[in-house]
Write a structure and sequence with these properties.
Largest sheet: 8 strands, mixed
Structural class: alpha/beta
Family: Belongs to the cation transport ATPase (P-type) (TC 3.A.3) family. Type IIA subfamily.
Subcellular location: Endomembrane system
Organism: Candidatus Fermentithermobacillus carboniphilus
Distance between the termini: 69 Å
Helix content: 40-55%
Strand order of the largest sheet: 8-23-22-21-9-18-20-19
Membrane topology: Multi-pass membrane protein
Oligomer: single chain
Protein name: Cation-translocating P-type ATPase
Strand content: 5-15%
Radius of gyration: 36 Å
Length: about 900
Amino acid sequence: MRAGYHSESPHEVLLHFGTDAARGLSRKEARRRLKRYGPNRIIKRKRPGFLSIFTGQFQDLMVLTLLGATVISAAMGEFIDSLVIACIVALNAILGAVQEYKAEEALELLENYAPPSAVVVRDGAEQEIDREEVVPGDLLVLTPGQRVAADARLVEATFLQVEEAVLTGEALPVSKDASLILPYGTPLPERKNMVFAGTLITRGKALAVVTATGMETEMGKIAGLLSSATGQKTPLETRLESLGKVILVICLAICAVLGVLGLMRGMPFHEVFLAAVSLAVAAIPEGLPATVTLCLAIGVQRMAKNGAIVRKLEAIETLGSVTVICTDKTGTLTKNKMEVVEIVLPEDLRVPSEGTRASSQETTGTSVPGHGVGGRESRSHFKYGDRRFREILEVAVLASDARHPPGDRSLGEDPTEQAIVARSLDAGIDVAFLDERHPRLAERSFSPERRMMSTKVKTSEGALICVKGATDTVIPLCRSQKVQDRVMDLGPKDREAWEKWVDSRASKGMRVLAVAKRMEAQGSGNRALKGLQEVTDPEGYQETGLVLLGCLVLADPLRPQAKDSVEKCKIAGIRPVLVTGDHLRTAESVARETRILSREEEGITGEMLDRIPESQIPSVVESYRVFARVSPVHKLKIVRGLKKKGHVVAMTGDGINDAPALKEAAVGVAMGCSGTDVARESSSIILVDDDFSTIVKAIEEGRCIYENIRKFIRYLLSCNLGEVITMAVSAILGLPLPLSPIQLLWTNLVTDGLPALALSMEPPDRDIMKKPPRDPREGIFSHGLLGKILTRGAYVGGVTTLMFVAGLKLWDVKTASTMAFATLVTVQLVFALDCRSETKSFLEIGLFSNMYLVGACVISWLMLYATVCLQPLRVVFDTVPLSISQWLGIFFVSVLPAVFGVVFRKG
């Protein structure tokens, strides 16, 4: 199917599809086209099964290393060791597979935005059919409350308005006009002669010829983009992958060297192999993957309490590396709900030298000082009891069809009119009683050409004409304006003042409606008061000679915390970028109010972006902070361009149009309340409260967790290095094995595990949000971490070996092995307290400021003590009881680095 139907007339499109404008397609032809084009549904790509996803988890090098240790341990008869390692590997694989399997559900949820049925004209009669049976060339019958079943070119339209926020992100319904013929390549949000699958009819009615179904619709194209979008590998994944490679190489190299040395000395092959297995178990930090997963899981719980649900564990850490946040406007920075944010009466703009002559008409009313606001924030500055304020709202309601506040979109009511109803209800106006007091006698509906709506209602004094609409339409029809308690002429300077004021509000992306009325004389209204027959008589009243009551300013207000959240992002070195389907002027206004954009800076539109060569896209997107009138393809292009420039991108959004970019970004942040299911399933994090400020809390949590991960990586690797040194030095010196594989495994999984997990509970530093984001290319061992690991690892290994050698000289091998085992564990537990900070001693930050760590160290040491003192455990771990003097020696060498903390911490 060709594109560009918006640039052709309805007759040309009908001719192209062979559709009769009155009779539609025949049933026979519809069946033939259904076979040719297929059902009108989004094709579900074949999803990988859970087993396939699960087996894919075993491609990670760290996992392969652990599996190697499992096989070696089992081959040597160490079945307990191999069983524990295998359990850890399986647990991590299951967690990863479940997360990936859930993410595959995003495509299926696009079905939620396809209506179950559609009304079409076939063989000259309207009939309701299943949406999957709609074919290109079908004539769709569109009425309020319906979701459009397929992309279509309008043939006829009467006062049609369509809400397209799900595709374009624009909150207000768009007026449509079937007679328009637009230039080829007109951006999707500006195709006023087209309707699109999944959008909602809010007003009017229309006939439209279907131009695209299924995957050829704009909704289908989004599904295609969603399936092609590739997630960015997170910094944590990259670093752990690098770490796995390093550990694997080191482990194999050391095992090979020591194996050769052993064989050269004439050691039996079995002993050499057992030594190699012990060394491999010592070198591999079996608890690291599980500890990272548990640390991230704890972060999930903390973030949930702050209003953020994490779907992908690694996203927590990735937030700490985010350099750019691409945020949508509607529903993210704003509330996605139209509100009356300002009411202006004529006296507010009154020019003293103009209109001093009062009209003969008598009116009543009082002034309402301070009843408006200048920004987009919604504030309640109105005096609800004032008659003038109530009057303008009552006339606006009488000139509207909506009778419910915003909330239920299925009613098909206009959101702008619903906002007027909501403000009227806040003012204490009984809308139902208002209709009873003033029954409608006639009406002239809103249309894109008229840009206004008027009604004629019954009052005790005669017929009242109520009008609301665009200021440039309504104000020219006004002869006078109501100033306090008098009706005064609307002079040229008054009109000029209104025009300037309207421009000031329009420049901020607000919508201004003028409200006016005219009371017909009792005599001229008698005929109208006899019944409702004039409703069908468009000439029953005149819309001229009106009295201007004032103007209502409507906007999608900013969220209360939006400005502060943007400012916090800037302080944290994160660049907020506004990406929206709305008009450029509106986007720039919101960006300036939230301080995303400075007064001098400007934005760029998707159409401008299309004219830029592909090679220049990364540089261009990096230089702008506002992107308006963008399509899903543009959003993907922006995210990919930023990624090519080395940025770690977070993308926020709530619509279907955001889903591909959410999936492409390193962190996709979806709105929980206003967001679509597709956006939520494509995201990494969901904001329960839809509050942009929650992102800032999530970033702080992400940075804290990454710092804590560094702490326990420092702890675990230093401890494992100490174990490697102990085993390697003993082998080189020809000493007996100081530790058995099960003692090493027990130390790594239990003694190391609890303190490492407790380190993840460390509270964040006070200045963590005053630091810039981490460089995405920064290694996990940066800022001297590797030096600290090597220094402390050398101490742990050296002191354990010395205690083993001393035990051999003073006692027997079994006692020496037990002393080495107890020394290794105790030294590590004291070291855990030192890992709480990379710049301060735990004595400076307070021993009891992290009670989780204190408790973990106490429990772990008691478990060590149990293996030495309890007879059943002594048999399993091959230990003997130690004397008080032996324990004192162990404690001394363990606390020595803490006493001289400056020397050993900065090494």
